[in-house]
Amino acid sequence: MSMHAAAQSAMYSAMRDAPDRRPFSRETLRRIFSFAAPHRRRLVMFLIASVATAAVSVATPVLAGQVVNAITNSRPVSTVVWLAVLIAVIAVAESALGLFTRWLSARIGEGLIYHLRTAVFDHVQRMPVAFFLRTRTGALVSRLNNDVIGAQRAFSGTLSGVVANLVTLTLTLVVMLQISWQITLLSLVLLPVFVIPARRTGVRLARLSREAADHNAVMTTRMTERFSAPGATLVKLFGRPAEESAEFAGRAGRVRDIGIRTAMLQAVFLNSLTLVSALALALVYGLGGALAIGGTLDAGAVVSLALLLTRLYAPLTALAGARVDVMSALVSFERVFEVLDLRPLITDRPDARTVPAGPLILEFDNVAFGYPAATDVSLASLEEVAVLDSRGGVEVLHGISFRAEPGRMIALVGTSGAGKSTIAQLTARLYDVNSGAVSLGGVDIRDLTADSIRAAVGMVTQDGHLFHETIGENLRLAAPDASDDDLWEALRRARLEPLVRSLDDGLDTLVGERGYRLSGGERQRLTIARLLLAQPRVVILDEATASLDSTSEAAVQAALAEALIGRTSLVIAHRLSTVRAADEILVLEDGRIVERGTHPELLAAGGRYAELYHTQFDDETADAATDLTPTGS
């Protein structure tokens, strides 16, 4: 490493001085080494190769000095030639060691990234829905990218750098002191001039970098929100393009100005250190030359000292910032462990069993439930708040009891916030009840495996979410092994086959972000096709036809009626006309079942259901649903 490169390294380390003050436990270090355990053998080889590289790098300046001495002392040509050959061999060896070290570094670093990323990804997938409702997606993705890579640097960069620099520094000092202890000590006098400005300039650059990062984060957030399909539509409908552009331009201009100041600070700093480097070399040549002329030092020794000097300042400067590098890596590890330490609320019991075979009875027995507090499911750093909201646990369902049998449809109706969607989420075990029990086939779902519940229970929600993938890939989420014929059959039953066949790419058509290349009704019918493909034994329709026009709704209702034959079904009503044929209708208010019965029975009772029905329909349009009932929660 040259003195110029060392200056840049020192400045970079100084810019990351914030984590320097944080304490770390032995448990953190133990967990770090547990992740490194699979790479133990390569780590040992890596450290040995780093030491060998450092040792070889010191040999070249010494041999260069001997070449000069051989020339000045009129030694035989063969001596010079053999020294040159030896220098060439060392150069080849150094190059080979460098490539080998880089290969080991890549294997260790990428292997560590792989294990950390897969560990975090698998753990996050086990987190409850409440976690994703609170967490900022960008902050979570950053843990999988920036922090994992920062942790990886601890092994592929910091660890090897500290070892190599310590070896290089020790060997260089030993050789320089043997050649001339006077010149070596005088050279060290310039070290504070080399290191102190790096740290002071680094602090100023850190402030500028943080400010630029803040502005960039805001701009990234705005772009992410406004360049998505729904965001762009909202801006075009209600936004103020001129004001939006002015605000964005203001932040971009500030980042530009910070970039200019940063570039100038770096240029002044690096030029100053280049001057210090030149002064150090001048000292060696001046004092060393005088000693050589006086006969107390060989000319070759002066050359060796000059070359060794560049190998002295570089590791000294790097080691000066090593503590910051180590702390930065530890911070990254702690941020990764912070996510891994979040306890999933929904886990399989050790003795969990699969859902019983055959038709299933769904039963709620005196169920009470309250959504968990943020402190139970989230992290302040992932929500980007100072303190987590401690509120939570307030019951939203009270004493819910009902029984849904195979071949029968149970409908849930009520105003917004009554608890309809909460019941659906408890059925799919997206949450666990606080008291009471939800059972499938007579078994508490807390005693069943999550995989078997997913296979037995299918749900279609109102938003009809799709991934930015092809129609075929979105359908195969429900049945990965399904053939194209199976997909076309599901599309036919969902009354979507003609549309998909009319597309140029058919099943290979990309649906766009969240499926926004399709209309709302088309998206919903595609999610219904996905449900039909899964063939679950318990079907939950949470406002499943809310986005359909009357014609599409009639077609899909026919498809759903076919799909529900012999299955246990739970339907959350958006339009009361869709549940008039239900075997039992449950009317919810404030998390309680206030009425239950068939459509004629509830109308005759003249209670809450009759009020909702007559509000939504009048005598002339009894068969035309008006979308007045908000989504249940």
Describe the structure.
The chain has 633 residues and is of the alpha/beta class. It has 2 domains: 3-340, ABC transporter transmembrane region fold, CATH 1.20.1560; 362-616, 3-Layer(aba) Sandwich (Rossmann fold), CATH 3.40.50.300. The chain is 62% helix and 9% strand. The chain has helices at residues 3-14, 26-36, 40-72, 77-125, 129-134, 137-179, 181-189, 191-226, 229-238, 241-293, 299-320, 322-340, 374-377, 380-383, 420-427, 450-456, 471-475, 484-493, 497-502, 520-534, 550-563, 599-605, 608-616, and strands at residues 362-370, 395-404, 409-414, 435-440, 443-444, 457-460, 538-542, 568-572, 584-589, 592-597. The strands form 2 sheets. Strands 6-7-8-3-9-10 form a 6-stranded mixed β-sheet, with helices on both faces. The chain has a 4-stranded antiparallel β-sheet with strand order 2-1-4-5, with helices on one face. Strand 9 (584-589) and strand 10 (592-597) form a beta hairpin. Helix 4 (77-125) runs antiparallel to helix 6 (137-179), helix 6 runs antiparallel to helix 12 and helix 8 runs antiparallel to helix 10. It is elongated and about 120 Å long. The two termini are 62 Å apart. Residues 14-23 and 622-633 have low confidence and may be disordered.
